Amino acid sequence: MFGSHNQKSMPLADGSHICEEVRITGEISASKPLILFGQVDGNIDAVSVHIKSTATVNGDINAQKVIVDGTVCGIVTADKVRLSASAFLNGEVRSGGIEIDEGATIEAKFNKEKELNG
After folding, report:
1. Rounded CA gap, 50 and 112, in Å?
2. What is d(CA 88, CA 105) in angstroms, rounded to the nearest whole number?
3. Total structural domains in the chain?
């Protein structure tokens, strides 16, 4: 019946997800990891940010760790940055460490800096 002990609870996501159908204009601040499938026109400040292949960010990103599979136009400031083969980055990267997969499209200035957000 209603209180069945055989029901499994849905696992809780550790962080925030912005769906592909969502477009946000404004600032985002997140104390947990942020996974973005949609579009953000504004700056993002989070613990970690994963820009999925369907996502676009027109603004600056500030985090400890940033993974870009999609499109970013702005300044990325992070201790660690990873640009996958599907990434497009136009702007600037300020990071202590960067990993770039073959195939990534980059039009950016790079500044290697000591630990920034850790």
Report:
1. 21
2. 5
3. 1
